[in-house]
Amino acid sequence: MAETILIKGNSASLTGPALNIGDAAPEAIVVIKDLKEKKVGGKKEKIQLIITLPSLDTSVCEMETKKFNEMLAKYANIDVNVISMDMPFAQDRFCESYGIKNITTASDFRYKDMEKYGVIIGEGALKGLTARAVFIADKEGKIVYKQLVPEITNEPDYEDVLKALT
To answer: For residue 96, what are the domain limits?
Structure first.
C-alpha cells in the first residue's frame, strides 16, 4: 500500500511499495555526473545512506544537502547518495557552487527507479518528483532505518539519522 505525505498541508500519495525496516533495499539505477549510471540499494561493501528529495533548486533541499554533506564528512565507510529528479548537469553545478564533496548527488530522471522505494509523488503540483525520505541499508542490503518526512517543506530529523548510523 502506498504511503502519503503532505505538500504545504495538502495530502499527496506516493507511488510504489511502502518499504519497512527489515525489507530488502531494492536495487535502483540512478544517474550521476557525466551521465554515468550508479546502482543504489542491494548488497554492497559499504553501508548506504539513500536520501531522496524533490529538487536541489529549493531552499529546504539545498539546506538539507549542505547539512548532510557537512555532517557526514567523517564517515568514509558510508556510501551517501542524495537523489532527486534534477538533471545531473544541474546537480554537478550545485555541488561545485557549494563545495559538496562528501556525498554523491544522483538523478532518477532516466528510469524513475526510486518508485521501488515508494517515494515518487503520485499527484499534485510535485507529481513525478521524489519525496523527502532517508533510508539506511546495511552491507547485506537490508533496510535498517527509514524516515519519510511527513511534510515535504520540512527538513528530516538529522540527529535521528546520525544516531542510526552509530
So the answer is: 24-165
